[in-house]
Amino acid sequence: MTFTQLRILQAVARTGNMTRAAGELSITQSAISHALRTLESELGVALLVRGNHGVSLTATGRAVCRRATLILTQMEALEQEVAGVRERGSLRVGTIPSANVRLLPPILRRFEDACPQVRLTVMEGSDHEVLEWLETGAADVVTVSAGIPLPAGTMTRTLAADRMLAVLPSGHDLAVRDSVTMAELARRPFIMSTGGCEPLITKVARAAEVSLRCHYRVRDTNSILAMVAEGLGVSVIPELSLPAHSPGVHAVPLEPPVGRTVLLALPADPLPTPGAFAELAAVPLAPRPVSLESSDRA
Question: Global pTM?
Answer without folding.
Answer: 0.64
